[in-house]
User: Which sequence fits this backbone?
């Protein structure tokens, strides 16, 4: 490896504006959100560096090397044979990634730990675990870290000894950090090998078309493959493809609209993946029974966990639509008006969202059955009603924002534009709960109604924009 | 004896577990230095797969490929530095400027010839200060070709390199290839559907059919072997008229048109005598040969060189 190579690789990475702007945006957004939470949960005039305010920016920072590894491994290495054939490609790229990883997942956590007077091994282990977990993009791999972080806030008595790495906890944290770093290292090493085949880690997801510019050699040879992704489960593309194809073959073009609208979602399958997530929530809540007041704990669980289900339900169909854009260039030429086509798309997206929301919440309620009810006060009917009202308004708002976001280029556009819905979904119920769990709900109901109205307007705008979208341009 | 630049031995490549699709079925090729090999085949015949296996981008299911002395699946940095590749669909970094991509690629090659790159960029009017993302398909392909040629590789593999180029860019590209061919140490493998291009630059041809090499040898030899005969007999020819091993045979009354894959003058003399016929021999260009070879029911050429 030469200095010139290192210099060029650094320019190569730093000249990409997107990851840096994401990083900055994520840190700012999370700081703002949790500063608000911190302000709400601590009396004015006091200073408190609460755990979430520490961990979330760190978490956002540790996302960055993950994104780098993934983007470069999947898009720019596997899909770019010229990169795969560059002599000495691996070493300078790995070195760059190592430097970024050390800064974001070692130096930054250690600095924050020193400022907060907690053990650096705690933050090192948490960051490394999150970084490693995010390398495996499954529902569980992605959501569990979020839930753990949220639940850590609930279970202060349990977490505190870990934060200070007392007793046996230190070697456990060191082991977690070591195993996680090894996984990250192996992934980076394999990902920079330039090979689609023969890697040591389960990198099957690297071959997925939705994370690539084009199909893999195998997909090209074996024909169209389904593109499984947890966010796509609400919209079963291959099933829709089959249905349209069947109708086209039968010459029943007029029924294509119904075909798009009738394509059922795979929400139950997606909800199954939520089970481990809910189980973790329940276990942590159980552990925390002595540290928080029992009469609020189930509500804490709902306000910290369930909004993620709402968020997933709001974003999933929009992301699926964004993935479907290349096919839409052909579908929109089917004999139906553009308005009919757009109506079918939006209708199906909303229907999928609501199904996902219903099934996920049914699963969550089933999980709540396992709580120690003898200590807990079940939520009152009015609390449940208010929650449902807030959640559905967030669903509408998130749907509208994500459906508009999905129109912009890029796979993560729905997330970026849908960011306000994240804040609303996650922040509003918790904010309300923190302020006045037992008081009048009128204020929050008005706010929810406002969000619902904005959501409906956004959906209407999305419908117009999807109708008028250009297809066929690169 | 000079060792071959590329030695492919009983190469097989399958995709999928169940059902398995066998794309390459026992390919054997030995390409000596200085060869300009044109790879021909129908869509899906396995040309791209063969090139990717040769470059170590795909792992052979069975058999082996040796490139410049290295096993293709484990190419050393030294061998990679002697390779150039232009894929069917050029992919490069859209956020970088053309100049930056060139500088980035140059950093990895000790033998980078910046003068040649500057000249090619000028010749193909590549906008050095523009970002790669908005470039047209043709410009992107031109950039990929520049990047593949910049280090003056000993072995250049091109997978349908001119598919996205306009006629003038294609002409420029062929001119460049012809200049490169001047170096006797340089070996080129390229696949294309444009047989006229191939005829201009290739000295050898490999024709892939159903995952196997149907013909591999000198282009001129192929043209000498495959001919079209027009047989005009004194009387009507029977519908059962045929010549063993013929690629195609059409009979209309007293006239038969036959494409044969192993022509020699003795065959023509024999037909003249046996059928009291006037036999005229027509040369075929590569495209016609390709079409004849892929006609329904046509046999594989008898000899693979």
Assistant:
């Amino acid at each position: 490896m030469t200095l010139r190579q290192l210099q060029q690789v650094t320019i190569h990475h730093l000249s990409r504006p997107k990851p840096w702007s994401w990083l900055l945006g994520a840190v700012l957004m999370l700081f703002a959100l949790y500063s608000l939470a911190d302000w709400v949960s601590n009396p004015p005039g006091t200073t408190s560096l609460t755990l979430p305010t520490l961990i979330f920016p760190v978490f956002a920072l540790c996302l960055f090397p993950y994104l780098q590894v993934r983007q470069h491994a999947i898009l720019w290495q596997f899909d770019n044979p010229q990169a795969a054939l560059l002599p000495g490609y691996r070493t300078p790229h790995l070195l760059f990634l190592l430097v970024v990883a050390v800064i974001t997942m070692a130096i930054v956590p250690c600095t924050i730990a020193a400022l907060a007077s907690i053990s650096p091994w705690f933050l090192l282990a948490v960051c490394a675990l999150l970084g490693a977990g995010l390398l495996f993009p499954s529902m569980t791999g992605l959501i569990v870290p979020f839930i753990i972080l949220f639940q850590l806030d609930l279970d202060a008595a349990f977490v505190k000894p870990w934060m200070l790495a007392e007793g046996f906890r230190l070697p456990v944290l060191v082991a977690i950090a070591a195993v996680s770093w090894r996984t990250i290292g192996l992934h980076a090493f394999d990902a920079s090998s330039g090979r689609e085949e023969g890697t040591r880690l389960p990198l099957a997801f690297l071959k997925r078309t939705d994370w690539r510019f084009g199909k893999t050699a195998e997909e090209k040879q074996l024909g169209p493959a389904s593109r499984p992704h947890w966010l796509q489960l609400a919209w079963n593309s291959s099933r829709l493809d089959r249905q349209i194809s069947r109708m086209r073959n039968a010459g029943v073009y007029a029924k294509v609209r119904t075909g798009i609208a009738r394509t059922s979602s795979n929400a139950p399958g997606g909800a199954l993946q939520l089970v481990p997530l809910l189980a973790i929530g329940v276990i942590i809540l159980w552990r925390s029974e002595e540290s928080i007041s029992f009469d609020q704990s189930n509500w804490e669980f709902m306000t910290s966990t369930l909004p993620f289900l709402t968020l997933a339900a709001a974003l999933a169909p929009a992301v699926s639509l964004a993935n479907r854009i290349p096919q839409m260039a052909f579908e929109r030429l089917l004999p139906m008006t553009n308005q009919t086509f757009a109506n079918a798309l939006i209708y199906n997206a909303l229907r999928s969202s609501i199904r996902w929301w219903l099934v996920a919440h049914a699963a969550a309620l089933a999980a709540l059955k396992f709580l120690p009810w003898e200590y807990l006060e079940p939520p009152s009917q009015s609390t449940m009603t208010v929650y449902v009202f807030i959640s559905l308004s967030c669903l509408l708002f998130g749907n509208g924002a994500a459906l508009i976001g999905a129109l912009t280029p890029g796979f993560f556009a729905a997330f970026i534009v849908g960011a306000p819905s994240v804040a609303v979904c996650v922040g509003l119920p918790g904010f309300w709960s923190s302020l006045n769990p037992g008081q009048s709900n009128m204020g929050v109901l008005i706010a929810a109604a406002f969000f619902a109205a904005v959501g409906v307007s956004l959906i209407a705008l999305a419908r117009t924009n999807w109708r008028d979208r250009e297809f066929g341009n690169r | 004896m000079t060792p071959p630049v590329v030695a492919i031995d009983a190469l097989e490549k399958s995709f999928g577990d169940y059902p398995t699709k066998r794309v390459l079925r026992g390919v054997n090729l030995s390409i000596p230095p200085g060869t300009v090999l044109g790879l021909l085949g129908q869509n899906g015949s396995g040309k791209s797969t063969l090139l990717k296996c040769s470059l170590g981008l795909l792992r052979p299911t069975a058999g082996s490929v040796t490139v410049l002395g290295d096993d293709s699946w484990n190419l050393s940095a030294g061998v990679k530095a002697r390779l150039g590749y232009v894929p069917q669909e050029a992919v490069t970094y859209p956020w970088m400027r053309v100049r930056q991509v060139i500088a980035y690629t140059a950093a990895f090659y000790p033998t980078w010839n910046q003068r040649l790159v500057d000249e090619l960029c000028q010749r193909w009017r590549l906008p050095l200060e523009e970002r790669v993302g908005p470039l047209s398909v043709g410009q992107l392909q031109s950039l990929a070709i520049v990047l593949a040629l910049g280090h003056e590789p000993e072995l250049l593999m091109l997978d349908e390199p001119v598919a996205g180029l306009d006629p003038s860019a294609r002409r420029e590209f062929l001119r460049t290839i012809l200049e490169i061919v001047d170096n006797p140490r340089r070996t080129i493998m390229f696949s294309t559907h444009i047989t006229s291009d191939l005829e201009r630059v290739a000295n050898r041809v490999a024709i892939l059919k159903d995952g196997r090499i149907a013909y591999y040898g000198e282009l001129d030899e192929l043209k000498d072997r495959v001919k079209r005969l027009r047989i005009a007999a004194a009387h009507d020819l029977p519908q059962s008229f045929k010549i063993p091993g013929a690629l195609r045979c059409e009979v209309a009354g007293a006239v038969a048109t036959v494409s044969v894959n192993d022509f020699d003058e003795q065959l023509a003399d024999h037909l003249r005598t046996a059928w009291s016929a006037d036999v005229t021999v027509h040369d075929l260009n590569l495209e016609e040969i390709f079409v004849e070879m892929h006609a329904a029911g046509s046999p594989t050429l008898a000899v693979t060189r």
Chain B touches chain A at residues 15-16, 21, 23, 44, 48-49, 52, 55-59, 73, 75, 77-78, 80-81, 83, 85, 87, 89, 91-93, 95-96, 100, 103-109, 144, 147-148 (CB under 8 Å).
